[in-house]
Every structure is written in structure tokens, then in C-alpha cells.
Amino acid sequence: MVFLAITPVGLADALRAAKAEDAIWCGSDAITEADYAKLEHPNLSRFIYELGDRELIADAIGTIEEHHPAQTIWVEAASQN
């Protein structure tokens, strides 16, 4: 399974929920470059751009599909209350 985290809270949730073999991807708005480097998580990948725009999320999903074909991708989404 692959997790796509959009926010810092979503990334923290994904890191807790992921199994050792799961991949986690996030945008630059979910974790700073410095914190990403310090974390040294083997299955965490960070886009160099923010994912606050739905169009960018679609592009990110396309990239993830290229790297993880036939994998289920879970995307963080905030409720629209």
C-alpha cells in the first residue's frame, strides 16, 4: 500500500499506520526538507512542491503510480464540514 500525506498531521498519521513494506509520499508542506533529512525513514518520499492544490495532487498520484504500479494509494483528505 502507498500513503499520500498532504498535511503534517496526515504525515504523522501515515507514519503511525504504515507497515514496514508500505511506502509513504508527501509534499513539501507536510514536512520541511531539514526534518525530512533528519527523519531518515527508508520508505518516505517527499515531493519538492506543496500539494495544497487538487491538480498537484493528481500529478503526485500519477508519479506515485509510476513508481508503485498496481498498488493501492491512500490519499489524505480533510472533511468538508
Short description:
The chain is 38% helix and 17% strand. The protein is an alpha/beta fold and 81 residues long. The chain has one domain (2-75).
SSE inventory with pairings:
Blueprint: E1 2-5, H1 8-17, E2 23-26, H2 33-39, E3 44-46, H3 54-67, E4 73-75
Parallel strand pairs: 1-2, 1-4, 2-3
The largest sheet, given as strand count, sense and whether it forms a barrel, is:
4 strands, parallel
Distance between the termini: 28 Å
Q: Report the oligomer.
A: single chain
Lateral arrangement of strands in the main beta sheet = 3-2-1-4
Strand content bin? 15-25%
Mean pLDDT: 93
Give the helices and strands as they follow along the chain.
Answer: EHEHEHE
The secondary structure category is alpha/beta
Q: How many helix segments?
A: 3
Shape: globular
Q: Helix content range of the residues, please?
A: 25-40%
| Strand element count | 4
**Low-pLDDT segments:** none
What is the CA-atom radius of gyration, in angstroms?
Answer: 12 Å
Q: Compute the number of structural domains.
A: 1
Structure description:
This protein is α/β, with parallel strands linked by helices and 81 residues long. The chain has three helices and four strands. The chain has helices at residues 8-17, 33-39, 54-67, and strands at residues 2-5, 23-26, 44-46, 73-75. It is globular and about 30 Å long. The N and C termini lie far apart (28 Å). The model has no long low-confidence stretch (mean pLDDT 93).
